[in-house]
Design a protein that fits this description.
This protein has 12 helices and 14 strands. By secondary structure, it is of the alpha/beta class. The chain has 2 domains: 328 residues, TIM Barrel (Alpha-Beta Barrel); 31 residues, no CATH class. It starts with a helix and ends in a 19-residue tail after the last helix. It binds NADP nicotinamide-adenine-dinucleotide phosphate. NADP nicotinamide-adenine-dinucleotide phosphate binds next to helix 10, strand 14 and helix 11.
Length: 383
């Protein structure tokens, strides 16, 4: 509660300066009348060819976005040419993003510019990809308000670069605030559309849940995120690689006013339907799951099952892999990666065709490829 009250007060101060942003925040997703199970917000998916509806139980599901600074009121975000998903604070996120992991600055600038040129207007970046300046350079090829820009900062306990073992929550909070500001500076933007904690403060490859010490560090980071959000420097805040126990810690009503909008986790053919129950868990709480490594870092491209299914549609194994992710009930968003115009266009083309339910079911039974972490959704936890 100590965390919450100052944020609510801050929200009140900002909210009192009602500016010219008059966006109507969508507050519900509902089934058609036949499938509504009760009052409140209901999300529906088609599972095994039948509607699967979950009623959201958490009263905080729909935190309003903070008062947006003037530059966003004057230049409101433009809708993309392909589907969007509504986040739990009402903002629209284009379903497909370009990922920039593994690129140096010049490759990142090139890939971002190419993706924007073919109409992909959601770009995903991270502090520890060490290419934010390159991403920023690519972004400047199009108006900022036509792009949905996502970034991530690193955990306080981190084995890879930026290597650190910051176990004091206060120090972790300060470090995160600084890293958030640094991220804006490197990207050379005034705000991002979504910022996510890259993972829980657990070692890479850890099996298990978030214990009390890690929960305290995650909360310290989330406190910094809420302040960044309330200040209008991010239009939404979320997490990545968070398992159920790590999310439970953030969702404690005595702690937090803001439910993560997104959990970015791994999903590709070979991991099956709803791995670890994490996707349905997020859906029940109004958290959008965004699949990373949808092609298992390239393994799906040559996967014999995907290639064989693709022949019936005149599509490649890669196209089948992307389409399978889009047709998963609990994963409406994804991050693809390519620096080739042809492949970026093929990835975007996934919105123009669909797999039959039978083919989706066949692909959902596959147990290979494994991708990262032996096919687990997160690299930082498993429960
Ligand atoms: N949050 C996290 O911890 C986390 C972890 C991993 C990844 N990510 C994000 O997710 C993004 C994507 O994941 P990923 O890098 O593991 O890879 P991925 O998207 O699973 O696969 C990328 C590979 O697929 C190929 N590809 C893409 N579209 C293709 C097409 N239409 N036809 C043929 N090949 C195609 C690319 O080759 P070409 O380049 O040759 O086209 C590239 O080698 C990353 O960049 C990163 O932003 C996040």
């Amino acid at each position: 509660m100590r965390v919450l009250l100052p944020l609510i007060a801050l929200y009140g101060v900002l909210g009192a300066h009602a500016g010219s942003c008059k966006s109507e925040h969508k507050t519900q997703k509902s089934c058609d009348a036949d499938h509504v199970t009760g009052g409140g917000c209901v999300w529906c998916d088609i599972v095994d060819q039948a509607p699967f509806c979950t009623e959201l139980s958490d009263a905080r599901q729909w935190p309003k976005p903070p008062q947006m600074p003037p530059w966003q009121c004057d230049f409101p975000p433009q809708p993309p040419a392909y589907p969007t998903v509504t986040l739990n604070n009402g903002i629209e996120m284009p379903v497909m993003a370009l990922g920039t992991g593994g690129y140096n600055d010049s490759f990142a600038a090139d890939a971002v510019a190419k993706a924007l040129s073919v109409g992909m207007n959601h770009v995903h970046s991270a502090y520890d990809y060490y290419n934010l300046a390159g991403v920023g350079e690519g972004l400047r090829t199009q108006p900022r308000n036509s792009i949905f820009l996502t970034t991530m900062t690193s955990p306080c306990v981190h084995a890879a670069k930026p290597q650190r073992n910051v176990t004091d929550p206060n120090a972790c909070y300060t470090l995160t605030l600084n890293e958030l500001e640094k991220t804006l500076e490197l990207l050379d933007v005034e705000y991002v559309d979504l910022v996510m904690l890259h993972g829980p403060s657990e070692p890479f490859g850890y099996l298990g849940g978030c214990d009390a010490a890690v929960c305290a560090l995650n909360r310290a980071q989330w406190k910094a995120y809420m302040e960044f959000y309330v200040a209008g420097k991010a239009r939404a805040i979320g997490v990545s690689n968070f398992c159920q126990s790590c999310l439970d810690c953030l969702l404690d009503t005595n702690f937090s006013a803001v439910v993560p909008a997104v959990n970015q986790i791994q999903l590709h053919v070979g991991m099956g339907y709803d791995p670890e129950g994490l996707f349905s868990y997020c859906r029940k709480r109004g958290i959008i799951t965004q699949a990373y490594s949808p092609l298992a870092a390239g393994e799906v491209v040559k996967d014999p099952l995907c290639q064989s299914v693709g022949k019936h549609y005149n599509k490649t194994g890669a196209e089948v892999g992307v389409r399978w992710v889009l047709q998963q009930p609990f994963s409406p968003a994804l991050v693809v990666k390519s620096d080739k115009l042809k492949n970026l266009q093929a990835d975007l083309d996934a919105f123009s065709w669909s797999l039959t339910d039978e083919d989706v079911a066949t692909l959902s039974k596959a147990t290979t490829p494994k991708g990262q972490q032996n096919g687990r959704p997160s690299w930082g936890c498993s429960k």
